[in-house]
């Protein structure tokens, strides 16, 4: 009798366990189905968002399955059109972290108005880091930054539109596009070239969408090719005038007294001509000691024309890095602060874009200094050579066939003076 009761209890217990297991399995399956449905909805939202311009394949791994995506978008080019300062402005987020979304995509396209301060929308001084080749009239840059959790990769484009852009009351002939995508890298310096390429292609896709519908007056920008190397062993076509050997700068054949070590010049600069601005630079890579010879180991040239000219000059003036008026006499010594000693030479021209400022800069190699007495006295003839080196860079830059200044028909050039950035 007792054994019968135990058997019945055991059967009931087993039935309960099986039932609980079935309920648990059903719950797990139900949760899985809900998550799958949520992810499908989020993927569909990703495909529709931002006028369907987002790179779905690259972003799929960031799409959440436990919460709905949050989409905020507006702009005069959306359907229906809206009153907005932007042609297109779109933010898509997934997951709610402690300090913000777990992953976020941002896209913005806007018409830049002449004579207005656009802050971060200004074209970069160093536009050579866009990882795709760009045609004339287009500038670009890519970047990466850390978030509270993880990092993001971004790309920006500045596109000249000969036919102008609609949707603003005031005329505009320049389009600015920015794209920011989540990255799998934990830190910004670990963002891969492939992710930079994804961001660059996304920015190009947005720019092409806008320019086609706005009848901007330019052909689509291409997205073919692989990432352009940031450090080049030879200058770009626009920067071929920057020849260290012809200018008598430090040679890249090796250290003095150490034949086992070598160093070479690498170059950066514009890959495409843009009427508003120009940039070329070169530097001797690696450590080199030239004792008391102090040759130039870094040189660069920049130009800003038209609306860009005044803003650029004002930015440098705010840091007291424009020529003094009246001009100060050249110094024969300076205090070393651990930063490269730069001698900059400024000039002003009239070019196709209007009033134009040029800035060239050279950095000589200095011998090691005594930390107890961090002061270097430069002999008069050496200081004069620094000036001659800077002037040689300016003259070569202005006269270079195929260079920016010649292509912009710069004329009536006036040298404004030097700026000794000793320790700035």
UniProtKB/TrEMBL annotation:
Protein name (database record): Secreted protein
